[in-house]
Protein: N-(5'-phosphoribosyl)anthranilate isomerase
Amino acid sequence: MSAPVNVKICGLTDSADVPAAILAGARYLGFVFFEKSPRNLALPDAAFMAGTVPEGICKVALAVDATDDFLDRMLAEVPIDMLQLHGRETPARVSEIRARHGLPVMKAVGVAGAEDLAALDDYAQVADQILVDAKPPKDAALPGGNGLAFDWRLIAGRRWPVPWMLAGGLTPDNVAEAIAMTGARQVDVSSGVESAPGVKDADRMAAFCAAALSR
Ligand SMILES: O=C(O)c1ccccc1N[C@@H]1O[C@H](COP(=O)(O)O)[C@@H](O)[C@H]1O
Structure:
């Protein structure tokens, strides 16, 4: 029997989201540091929320093309276990951030077509994990968190030398099918468990985890 699927719930904005996500079954909690996002957190709020997370649950900071100065300030204030890089960071920049900040790094890679798959192989050489997400539309304000899925058949049966997560448009209704089609053992969700942009819904988080953990 395979190990249970790991769920990451990203973009928590309210302190009540932390116990709700953990009770639902999430193993990773994501905190967003990107000003254009409806899920963006101020450092003191993130510090408070992350400080309530028990041992054994991975606290992930999501950043987009962040400077070292910002990462230094954020990590000095917020207890974080992993960095999620969701911008245009090159493989060299991923290595640099990993070495400088001493934390595992998960690099998000946007997929829309077969031409995007080579980047996954490149980043799997330098990151601790890769996040296989939908590529945002050209005019999108956000590089992720858009509730957009990609064609899961593109990665069916594909494997990488590091752990990976599936993301992009996952919901309580489609996550089981997404896992079955791709073989993912880790899934990440943000807008699919919200009642409005930036507002997590405890029932949807529970339904999402139940559906993912049933696989
Ligand atoms: O959630 C955000 O606001 C966000 C902002 C900037 C970059 C990434 C963001 N979210 C990540 O996007 C994917 C997919 O989200 P969704 O489930 O389709 O809404 C997920 O990895 C989030 O961590």
The first strand starts at residue 6 and ends at 10. The helical segments are 17-24, 43-51, 68-77, 91-101, 117-124, 175-182, 202-213.
